[in-house]
Amino acid sequence: MDDVAEDAGIFARESPYLDRYVQVGYASGKVLSVSFPTDPDEGATEDHPLLDRIEAYLEGETADFSDVDVALTMPTDQRTVLERVREIPYGDQTSVEQLTAMVAGLDADDMNDQQLVRTALDENPAPLLIPDHRVRDGPSAAPPEVEQRLRSLEGL
What we know:
Elements: E1 9-15, E2 20-27, E3 30-35, H1 49-58, H2 76-85, H3 96-102, H4 111-122, H5 144-153
Helix pairs in contact: 2-4, 3-4
């Protein structure tokens, strides 16, 4: 993503829509984490272009964050699932079973493969940027109230 500063740090901005902060950990040109604390980490600053984009999204602007580099430091099979989740368009949703079928090498009828998908969703380091809220029957790494507001925002 070209418009994001290359400096590392923790950035947080209060979101009236979510009634909490959106906090982003950023280093080496990649997002390391997205979280939704009620109070930001000490020393977090609010000036970051990605937070501008997230704020616009939370104010109702259709957004696509697929150009944002997210560091996915997890097993390859889980990373593959989350990369596929990033392809679910704004306002669309899928199920765990359908998502499992969309991931190469996984069998939608295999309960172990479905559990792999659920684990990847649950351990998502960057909810919202990797929109696990679009998987209607899967876990989200975001707090439940945040997940529901994101779903509502997109009409899901």
